[in-house]
Amino acid sequence: MSTHLHDNPAWSQATPTISVLIPFLRDDPQGLLRQLDAEAAALSGAVELILLDDGTADADLTTRLQATIDALRLPVRLITLAANEGRARGRNRLTTAARGEAYLFLDSDMRPDTAAFLQNWLRLATDNAPAVAFGGFSLDQAPTDARFAVHRALSGASECLSASQRALTPEKYVYTSNLLVRRDVFAAESFDPGFSGWGWEDVEWAMRVSRRFPVVHIDNPATHMGLDTVEDLVRKFDQGADNFARVVALHPAIVQTYPSYKAARALKRLPALPIARRLMKQAALTAVLPVKARAFALRLYRAAVYADAV
Predict the structure, then answer these.
(1) What average pLDDT is seen over the chain?
(2) How far apart are CA 50 and CA 34, in angstroms?
(3) Among 101, 165, 226, 306, which is least packed by CB within 10 angstroms?
């Protein structure tokens, strides 16, 4: 596979403690990069950024991105792939370029909620060196357009939780969007390349890791800016069915405790499941319905799709 590397002037001299790993596909991460770079003076070269363009194949974006990277004070490497590798393989590849003792997986559509975001992570890595730590999600900076209202409702209810709430079931609330992992831990447990498409590869990884290492939760959140329309969420849920089936096969005892699994099992017994699935999807897509009702219909639709896997 064709791979191109681009390093900025600060890259060669840095001896980082944390490597921030940012994969992207058909997305422009420049806003995130500039926000992170605002902390450069306080970090003294202890944090590097490594980006993976996972097959966007947009020469103009690459050129603009390289110019932005060259002007940043943080050490940055851009890895550009000619063809898409997928979420699990791409993140595994990012770690091979990392020089830090800890990896911070950060999605390109995240925006830190504080001006000390990287400093907070560096302090934790330096003082405590946790095996795995998740910083949390918020919707503080997310778009409030009506077309994203259902996703806001879903994310707010199930993902935007405090550290104390997440710590009750630590392995369940681990997402590769704001996740610190110690180098030796990732060497012992990397992402399963058998996952393709959307979803569940980070949850499955957390299930494996949590058996061997403690998972810590802290409040150092970032906003998930990339909210989806209902149409996009439906498409992702359809894509995620095979990945859900893989998680069920690999970790049945854990997955069977999840509400999504229990709902899928219940819906599987419906004699007219295909018809019910279409009705749930239609309700979720119906803009005149209340947002809470549409979000509930969408959760039911996801469980109905997953019913084929249980």
Answers:
(1) 92
(2) 14
(3) 165
